[in-house]
Every structure is written in C-alpha cells, then in structure tokens.
Amino acid sequence: MAEKRKDNKGRNLQKGESQRKDGRYYFQYKDSLGKAKVVYSWDLAELREKEKQIKKDLADGINETSSKMSLNQLFDMYLSLKNAEKFRGTTRENYIAMWDIHIRNTELGNAEIRNIRPSHIKKFYKGLKDSGLSNSTIKLFHCMLLPSFKLAVDDDMIRKNPATDCLNDYKGGAKVKEALTVSEQRTLLEFVKNSKVYNSYEPMLRYMLGTACRIGEVIGITWNDIDMKNRKININHQLTYKRNAEKKTVFSISSTKTDAGNRVIPMTENVYNALCEQRKQNLYLGIPRDYEIDGYSNFVFMSKNGRPIAPNGFNNAMKNIVNAYNKAEQEKAVEEKRPPVLIPHISAHTFRHTGCTRMAESGMNVKVLQYIMGHSNISVTMDVYSHAQEENITNEIDRLEQTQIAIVV
C-alpha cells in the first residue's frame, strides 16, 4: 500500500490536496466543463471547507464559472432574453433606468451572484424603504431580481434563489388607485370649467374620462389619429417623457404598452364635443402645431408654447386644481357651518380608472370594455368590472330598502 502523503505537521493529505514549500495548501480539481482548477489556503481546515463546497457544487451540476457572474451581468442577461413583443421598449427602459440609479454602481450590483444571500436583498429593500420609496416601487425591484435569480438557478449558476420571500415585509401599504365617484367627477369638472386659472384643462379631462386612455396615449394623440367625421380615435402609439442615453429628459414616441393597446375607439358625444372645444381653444390661443417628435406632429393637447403636456406636468396641474378646490370648499363649509366635502388626490391614472369604472357601471360588455381599455389580460378588466358591478348591486339594494321602508311607513 502506497504511503499517504503528509503535510509539514504530519497530517494526512487527501486526494487532490498538496502543500507548497512555503506552507500554503492547495486543492486541485476539474470543474463541470473539465477544466483544471486550483484553490489555495494557509489553513488545512479552511481548505477542506472550500473542498466540501466545490464537491457539493460539482455533484449538483453548479457551473462555477457562471456563478462568479456579477448581479449586473445577470440582470443584463435576463433583459437580453426577454421576449421583445411581451416586454415593450418603455417597460424595458424603465427597468434599466431604475437599475442604473439604485443598483448598477453599488456593492450589491457588483457582487458575484454566488455570494449574494437573502439578507443582502432584504437590506437593499430596507434601504429603499428608508429612503422614502413606496412598497409598489420595492415590488418593482423584486420583479427584476426574482426572475433574474431564477434564471441563474435554472442555468445551474447558483443553488437557491436568494430573493425568494424577501418581499414579505413590503406587500401591504401600497396606495390604492380609486376611481372618482360620480359626484366627485361632476364636482371636479364643474370647478375646472368655472375656473379662470384652470378652465383650459376641461376639454382634456373630459376626453380622458370618456376614452379611459393611458396618459402616454392621451398626450401622444395627434389630429391625424382622429376621424371627426366618423367619430373614431385611432390609438397606435404613445408619448413618453424620460431620460435618454445622454441623461437628458426628452419626449419620444413608442409603441403602445401591449399589442392590445392598438385599437380604434368610437367617440361618445361628450368626447366629440371635448375635441371640438380643444380645437377651438388651440386656434384661439394661436398654439403652433409644427412641434415634431420622432416624425409625429399636430398634437391635440399642448401647452401654450406648442409642446405636448408632460405627464409630471399634468399631475402637478391636477394637484394644484384639487388643492385650489379643497381650499375654497373648506372656507365655504366654515361659512355654512357644515363639514367640507373634499376631493381626493388625483393623478393621470385616476382618470383612466374612473373612465373605465363609468363604462363598467353602464353595463358595458366586459370584452368590449377590455378592447377599449387596451388590456391584454381580461383579469385586469374584470377587477374593475366586478368592483363596479358590486357597487351597482349595493346601490340597487339600498334603493330597494328605501322603497320598502316607504311602503311600510
């Protein structure tokens, strides 16, 4: 029997282990691709811990070379493999922008994926929360990290997904986007119409409520997309306002959010009148129509300088409108010695959600509603539709109850 090799302390060395003249230990092996590898340590016990992990990875088919990939490299690979048809340009750009701001140049982004643990992900989420970001934003990062690590697990780069279960503390508390009630909608439009400061927004608001379009589809619509004679609106693109590669915030044209976003919406009488009013307003104010973005011009909704209205500009205007109304209502309520009836915070999405809710409340066929909204998944439409029908049922039962009380009395 061959004599076992020993280290300089007389300890037996195992297969693959050796010790250099300077006393440092090393372990030789072949990786999953058959390439010769060596790991070193000054301590034999530490070397054997490394050996143990290596042998476990080899037994499980873990690709050691790929596991040294950084989180940034993994995310870039994940994006490159996404189906372009299902992962549109604007969504992709948003993902990249958020990643570049919060992860790209951080310790987490540059860490090797094999070394990332759940505690690192949780620490990252906590940092986002402490910086004032909402749960919905944290969830968006989770939607980037979880599938990226899943790709690494599926490709045998790592054994387990470290992002699993890391979102538990941030699932609740997100702001719920509520539709305006009929009364709130009526009050808002009346206030805007009678306001000397904000009345220029009235046609746009009526258009948004009557079409339930996304804000990018609203600010991107051109008169070339509108058939006033046949009363139809062709939605085939959207306008975005975001940072480009040069770090400048600019307008750009992109495709609709989904394939279902390409649609032709018939005008209601209210929408038709709103567009007529908007055209008169544009002519009266002498707003130029030649401002061009990626080959598109003649936009319907523009600021006084002829540029389209940016989403954040619209949301700021709505904030000012609501604040102005609520301030006046509070003063009036004090004079009349009654509680004020205030309007809640409103964003561009509030108008889309409200428009969809009004359509659902009217009893519109859910498949027609899905088409008008441009939803690729009917479950999104059903969420609004079901809620609206529940409200209708509640209102009808309340009306029945009042009728029965009147009969009994």
Structure in words:
With 409 residues, this protein is mostly helical. The strands form three sheets. The chain has a three-stranded antiparallel sheet with strand order 1-2-3, covered by helices on one side. A three-stranded antiparallel sheet has the order 4-5-8, with no helix packed on it. Strand 1 and strand 2 form a beta hairpin. It is elongated.
What is this structure, in a nutshell?
It contains 15 helices and eight strands. By secondary structure, the chain is mainly α. It has a three-stranded antiparallel beta sheet, covered by helices on one side.
Helix count, per DSSP? 15
Question: Uncertain regions: pLDDT < 50 for 5+ in a row?
Answer: 404-409
Apparent shape: elongated
Give the distance, in angstroms, between the N- and C-terminal Cα atoms: 109 Å
Mean of residue pLDDT values: 85
Largest sheet: 3 strands, antiparallel
Radius of gyration: 30 Å
**Global structural class:** mainly alpha
Strands of the largest sheet, in order across it?
A: 1-2-3
Strand content: 5-15%
Could you tell me the number of beta strands?
8
Helix content: 40-55%
Order of helices and strands: EEEHHHHHHHHHHEEEEEHHHHH
